[in-house]
Write a structure and sequence with these properties.
heterodimer, A: 240 residues, mainly alpha, MetI-like fold, 82% helix, elongated, B: 274 residues, alpha/beta, Rossmann fold, 2 domains, six-stranded mixed beta sheet, four-stranded antiparallel beta sheet, 10 strands, binds adenosine-5'-triphosphate, binds magnesium ion
């Protein structure tokens, strides 16, 4: 409701005060620009979408095993964590041009940036989750001579799910940003590219349109992860 | 020390008490800052088959450590633990454990929580013990409830079923009722005795409540502050099954008093009387 009211206010004030369209387009201008641009919007959205998803899935595929490694051994934890911290301390925006030199103009450097930003919350939260079971329940399992595999399958992984999903929720929105940063640095396709291209021609309404699509993508992906979370751990938050 | 505790132990037969024996056990913990904490030194204890043994002692004296050693989770630094004459060198899967917190897995139903040990041991619940145990503790009809739908007392009953599902030889309980309110606690004590009466096995039970200890135990082992020794072992000579009325007998009060005195005499009275 408030959202609709804000949109109306934006539209009205834009018209009343006659703000130039290249400075701040009204919502109607933005919709108009999107419709005018037409079919290749779908292509750009799709490109950014799959760079995001690819980077995100890659971050899960690498983050979860590393979280297990970090949980499993103190020595690994002491070697892996500093390395990860170093990669996280380097600003991705500064790193993206280097990726461009290494991997060229294709999709890959964007996927790498999306992966790099998504990776950190996933490994940190998953490792926290894997360590969350009480020492007593682990003792109980060990007393029954449970194998490490059993302890992970029956206790640690399910316990880690809520933490894993909070990591994913942060990671998915970061992935979108990562893909866009990758596109900013050098691309011929994608919504990030569209923002750069249209602003350089003062097509501000289209730039706003691309941002709206990006925001929508973020929100939908976030909602999707949240929905999977609710289905996967309905018990969470109901313990006393 | 060893001789002294042996004398106190009524039946006093060296060979007959071979069910569980802790012999000259010492446990030294390495602390984070590189120091050492001695939980106990040259500790000796003998536990008889099917007896209800209760350990009381000041906080931090090493009761939980002793229990972990008995189930084979923690090797003693020196000395040994024997179960039926063989040294305990690895976890005893034929023991059951209950802790202060129920530690149920929140994504599993009551029944599935109770089944956890069976799953880990790779067995099947052929004769539906889970159902019978849950009925025994009054959780019949709650089998498919989730832990968060249960009260604290019900959760702890479920944890007791989980500890009993694989029909363990020994039930090890570390302050199992410590997190419950006084009323629930008494009820749980009654119920535990009822279960134990129907399904006799050795129980090693830690509590901070002297009344609870006297009410439940065949023998109460009173421990000194760290490094723990046995201050005394009190035999509780009330008949079984224990009845409510026994708590009001003068003898009951005498037991409570003398255990409090032992603790006060040596530890400055850290325990509460109820
Ligand atoms: N993992 C550990 N590392 C270092 N010290 C430990 C460790 N576990 C226990 N201790 C120390 O060993 C001593 C005995 O601990 P324990 O938990 O066995 O006591 P407790 O009698 O069960 O106490 P409480 O009645 O409070 O439960 C304590 O002084 C404790 O600080
Ligand atoms: Mg303890």
């Amino acid at each position: 409701m408030t959202f609709v009211a804000l949109l109306l206010l934006w539209e009205a004030s834009g018209r009343i005060f006659g703000v130039p369209i290249w400075l701040l387009p009204t919502p109607m201008d933005i919709v108009h620009a999107l419709v005018e641009r037409g079919s290749d919007l779908f292509l750009h959205t799709w490109i950014t979408f799959y760079e995001t998803i690819f980077g995100f899935l890659l971050a899960i595929a690498l983050g979860v095993p590393l979280a297990v490694a970090v949980t499993h051994s103190r020595a690994l934890s002491n070697t892996i964590y500093p390395l990860i911290l170093v990669t996280q301390s380097v600003p991705k925006v500064a790193f993206a041009p280097i990726l461009l030199i290494w991997f060229g103009y294709g999709d890959f450097p964007k996927i790498v940036v999306a992966f790099l930003v998504a990776f950190f919350p996933i490994i940190v939260d998953t490792a926290t989750g894997l360590r969350s079971p009480s020492p007593q329940i682990i003792d109980l399992a060990r007393q029954l001579a449970a194998s490490q595999l059993q302890i992970y399958a029956k206790i640690r992984f399910p316990s880690a799910l809520p933490h894993f999903f909070s990591g994913l929720k942060v990671a998915i929105t970061l992935s979108v940003i990562g893909a866009v940063i990758g596109e900013f640095v050098g691309a011929e396709k994608g919504l990030g590219f569209l923002v750069i291209e249209s602003t350089s021609h003062f097509k501000t309404p289209l730039a706003f349109g691309a941002m709206v699509l990006l925001a929508l993508m973020s929100i939908i992906l976030f909602g999707l992860v949240a929905a999977i979370e609710r289905a996967a751990c309905p018990w969470y938050g109901r313990e006393h | 020390m060893h001789g002294e505790s042996n004398k106190k132990w009524g039946k006093g037969l060296q060979g007959a008490g071979e069910f569980i024996r802790v012999v000259n056990a010492s446990k030294v913990y390495q602390t984070q800052d590189g120091g050492e904490v001695e939980a106990f030194t040259n500790f000796n204890l003998e536990i008889e088959e099917d007896e209800f043994l209760v350990l009381v002692g000041p906080s931090g004296c090493g009761k939980s450590t002793l229990l972990k050693m008995i189930v084979g989770l923690l090797p003693p630094t020196r000395g040994a633990v024997y179960f039926q004459g063989t040294e305990v060198l690895s976890p005893r899967t034929d023991f059951g454990m209950v802790f202060q917190e129920a530690t149920l897995l929140p994504w599993r139903s009551v029944r599935d929580n109770v089944m956890l040990p069976i799953e880990i041991l790779g067995k099947t619940d052929k004769d539906y013990r889970a159902g019978r145990l849950l009925t025994l503790v009054g959780l019949h009809g709650f089998e498919s409830r989730m832990p968060y739908e249960l009260s604290g007392g019900m959760q702890q009953r479920c944890a007791i079923c989980r500890a009993l599902i694989h029909d363990p030889r020994v039930l090890v309980m570390d302050e199992p009722f410590g997190a419950l309110d006084a009323m629930t606690r008494e009820e749980m004590g009654r119920e535990l005795l009822r279960i134990w009466q129907q399904n006799r096995k050795t129980v090693v039970f830690v509590t901070h409540s002297i009344r609870e200890a006297v009410w439940l135990a065949d023998r109460v082992v009173v421990m000194t502050p760290r490094p723990a020794k046995i201050a005394d072992i009190i035999e509780i000579e009330f008949e079984r099954p224990r009845t409510e009325k026994m708590q009001f007998l003068p003898k009951f009060g005498e037991y409570v008093q003398s255990i409090s005195d032992i603790i006060a005499g040596r530890a400055g009275g850290v325990l509460c009387k109820d």
